[in-house]
Amino acid sequence: MIVAVAVAAVIGVAVGVALTRWSFQRSGRLDTDVEPVAPSSESDAGVSGSLREAVEHLEIGVLLAGSDGGVSYRNAAASAYHGTYVGILVDGHVAELVEAARAGAPTSRIVELQGPPKVWLEVAADPVPNGGAVVTIRDVSERVRTDSMRTDFVTNISHELKTPVGAVAVLAEALIDESDPAVVHRLADHLVDEAHRAVRTIDDLLKLSEIESRRPGDEVVDLKAVVGSAIGRGRVIENGRGVQITSLDVPDDLFVRGDELQLLSAVGNLVENAVKYSHDGGVVQVRVRVDDAAVEVMVADQGVGIPTRDLDRVFERFYRVDKARSRETGGTGLGLAIVRHVATNHGGDVLVSSQEGEGSTFVLRLPASLVVPPGTAASTPQRQERQQRE
C-alpha cells in the first residue's frame, strides 16, 4: 500500500510541484543551476517534502524520466543499482520501458540476472502528464522462487503419483472380477503397497516443500539426541536383515542452534538411506566430528555404492540410482533432496564419496558458528529429557 501511495504521490504532487523545479538534461542528471519554483503554500511544501522523504526510504527503486527520456531523479534504492554491473544490465530495460511509457503505454517486465545468487527484478514504467515516465524497480526473487517451487511441486506430484495411482486403479478393477481367495489376497497386498507408496511420496513432497519455503527455527538442538533418534529410525526399517548401526565419537555436550525437526529429518534420511542400500549383515556407522570450521555428521555404509556418473545427481528430486531397488525398499527419491535443503537452510552443505560395490559416506556439514558454547545449554528441554531417559 505504501508503494502505491508513494508512487502515486510522485506522479501527482511531484509532477505538479516537484517536476516544475527540476530541469531535465539529456545526460540524465539533475540541473542544479535551475532555480526551483516555490510551492504554492507552506502546506504544499510540507506535503512535497514528506512525500519525497517517503519515496527516498522505499525499498523499491523509483526513477523519474522527463519528456526527453533523460532520468532526473533516482531514490536511494534505485541509486544503489546505478553504475553497478546490475545497474548497467537494468538500464537497458529501463530505457526501453521509458520509451514505451512516453508513448502512453504502461508496461513492465521481469529481468533475470544470473548469480550467484540469481536475482529477478520487476521493472515497470508508467506515463506521467508531462510526457515523461515514472519507473519502479522491485526485487521479486522470493516471489519467483515461490512460484517456481509451487509449479515444481504440482509437476512432481503429478508425475510421481501417476504410477501408484494407476496401479491402484488396475488392481482395484482386477479385484472386482476375481473370485479366487488366494488371488484376491495377493492383489489386495499389492494394492496396499501401492497406496502406501503414494502416501510416502505425498508425505516426502510436503516435507520437502515445507523445508524449502520456510526459514529454519532457532532452537538449541542436542545433536547426540538427533543422532540417537536417527539410529532408532534405521533400526526400525532394518527389518531383520542383520544390518548393524553404530555411533562413534558423538560428544555428550554438543548443541547447535537450528531447526530440530529439520535436523532430525536430515540425519534420519541419511541413516535410513544407508540401511536400505546396505547388504544383509552390513554395518552402518554414524560419526560426529567438530573442528573450528564445521560440525560434521558422517554416515558410512558398506553397501552397493554409487557409480561415479551418478554422484553429481543423487541430491536431485526423484533421482534414483537403482530404480528397481528403490521401489523394493520403498524409497521416494526425495530423501537426499531433503538433506541438501536442510543443510542449505542452516548455512551448511552435504557431501558424498562412494566406491561402487564397497559403500558410500555422506557428510552433513554445519557451520561451527552454530555450536552453542559449553555450559550455556545445560538446562535445555532436550537435555533434560535425555537425562530423564538415561
Mean pLDDT: 79
Count up the helices.
11
| Strand line-up in the sheet with most strands | 2-1-5-4-3
| Major sheet description | 5 strands, antiparallel
Q: Regions with pLDDT < 50 over 5+ consecutive residues?
A: 1-39
Write the CATH homologous superfamily of the largest domain.
Histidine kinase-like ATPase, C-terminal domain
CATH topology of the largest domain: Heat Shock Protein 90
Structural class: alpha+beta
Q: What fraction of residues sit in β-strands?
A: 15-25%
Second CATH tier, the architecture of the largest domain: 2-Layer Sandwich
Quickly list its features.
single chain; 390 residues; alpha+beta; Beta-Lactamase; Helix Hairpins; Heat Shock Protein 90; 3 domains; 5-stranded antiparallel beta sheet; 5-stranded mixed beta sheet; 48% helix; disordered N terminus
Describe this structure in words.
The protein has 390 residues and is of the alpha+beta class. The protein folds into 3 domains: 138 residues, PAS domain (Beta-Lactamase, 2-Layer Sandwich); 72 residues, Helix Hairpins (Orthogonal Bundle); 174 residues, Histidine kinase-like ATPase, C-terminal domain (Heat Shock Protein 90, 2-Layer Sandwich). It is built from 11 helices and 12 strands. Strands 2-1-5-4-3 form a 5-stranded antiparallel sheet, sandwiched between helices. The protein is extended. The chain starts with a helix and ends with a helix.
In short:
With 390 residues, the protein is an alpha+beta fold.
Task: Outline the fold blueprint.
Layout: H1 2-18, H2 42-56, E1 61-65, E2 71-74, H3 76-81, H4 85-102, E3 107-113, E4 119-127, E5 133-139, H5 141-177, H6 181-213, E6 219-222, H7 223-238, E7 244-248, E8 255-258, H8 260-276, E9 283-290, E10 294-300, H9 323-329, H10 335-345, E11 349-355, E12 359-367, H11 381-389
Parallel strand pairs: 7-9
Antiparallel strand pairs: 1-2, 1-5, 3-4, 4-5, 6-8, 9-10, 10-12, 11-12
Helix pairs in contact: 1-2, 5-6, 6-10, 7-8, 8-10
